[in-house]
Amino acid sequence: MDKQAKIYVAGHRGLVGTALVRNLQSKGYTNLLLRTHAELDLADQNATEAFFAAEKPEYVFLAAAKVGGIVANNNYPADFIHENLAIQTNVIHSAHLNQVRRLLFLGSSCIYPRDCSQPIKEQYLLTGPLEPTNRPYALAKIAGIEMCWSYNRQYGTQYLAAMPTNLYGPGDNYHPENSHVIPALLRRFDEARKNSITQVKVWGTGTPRREFLYSEDMADACVFLMNLPDAEFAGLLAEEELRAGRFAPPVVNVGSGSDIAIGELAGMIAAATGYQGDIIFDTSKPDGTPRKLLDVSRLSALGWQPKVPMYEGLKSAYADFVRADAHGR
Q1: Nearest-angstrom CA–CA distance, 80 and 297
Q2: How far apart are CA 11 and CA 159, in angstroms?
């Protein structure tokens, strides 16, 4: 990507979007297109098409989405599938209408079957049932992958889908009920420490294993992918399945390549926040998928590796939470 190229970061105020903006700016990209939800509702087809027609971005990072943890996905399934389908449909189609050179669609590792083999390879997509607690969100993201693949096949576009593992970092959502596991535990342990609470409950048994990636690393991987030489980027876009004789969607896993038990994670977060009480596991609550570890060999072979160790990332995320909490966010 040329340093003066018009780059649209959709969802620039979210966890990944803020990190993308910081990463791009640090690398000297000066022509970033940024719009808040109030300025541009991507679920509005007319507004989205008018924006693309007026601005003509050359590259698009599609990080805008409705996201949340188990509780949010359970409580608002219709919102999750409707809003995400609308956003990605409008952006991907508008990108095609306005000759966007490359688009990176950000999905989620929940697209893969609940009980598929570990580590999870890109070709495991659509090989088994999804985790029920976030199926509406996962199906929306799968539809986004199929849109990228379909537009590539029919129109010769260059749309790639990046599937991140569980992300955390500055700019996360720290809502007590609707957030993901790391920001939720950061809040819970911080409140327990400040209020001298001697026990903190954690959902489930503590035995499920999860992979996590710091948001700044995720952003760096995204920019790395969008800057690949033409031949390497095209090689990630896959072929038409009927002609190639194999299922190879335009998907690249992005993760750390290692996982951790939720119980161990809770202990690390307790240490990062200074909480010294007991951790109790509420086995009446669901665990979700037993294990989720992405196979990141495809990305690693291209030369990218994460840089931020887990505990260092947790301390940085906690510092961000403290700042956010002080400002009432």
Answers
A1: 30
A2: 17
Q: Which of 247, 37, 308, 282 is nearest to 124 (CA)?
A: 247
For 66, the 3-state DSSP assignment is: coil
Q: Is the sign of the CA dihedral 154, 8, 73, 124 positive or negative?
A: positive
Single pTM value for the model: 0.92
Residue whose C-alpha is closest to residue 121's, from 295, 301, 318: 295
| 161-204 pLDDT per residue, tens | 999 999 999 988 887 666 788 998 999 999 999 999 999 999 89
Q: Which residues contact 156 (CB under 8 A, 6 or more apart)?
A: none
CA distance 66 to 286: 22
Active site residues: 137
Q: Give kind and range of the element (H or E) at residue 105.
A: strand 102-106
pLDDT digits (tens, 9 = 90+) for 258-270: 999 999 999 999 9
Task: Please measure the distance between the N-terminal and C-terminal CA atoms of the chain and give it in whole angstroms.
Answer: 35
CB 288 within 8 A of CB 131: yes
> In this structure, what are the phi and psi dihedrals at residue 128, rounded to the nearest 5 degrees?
-175, 175
CA distance 66 to 80: 6
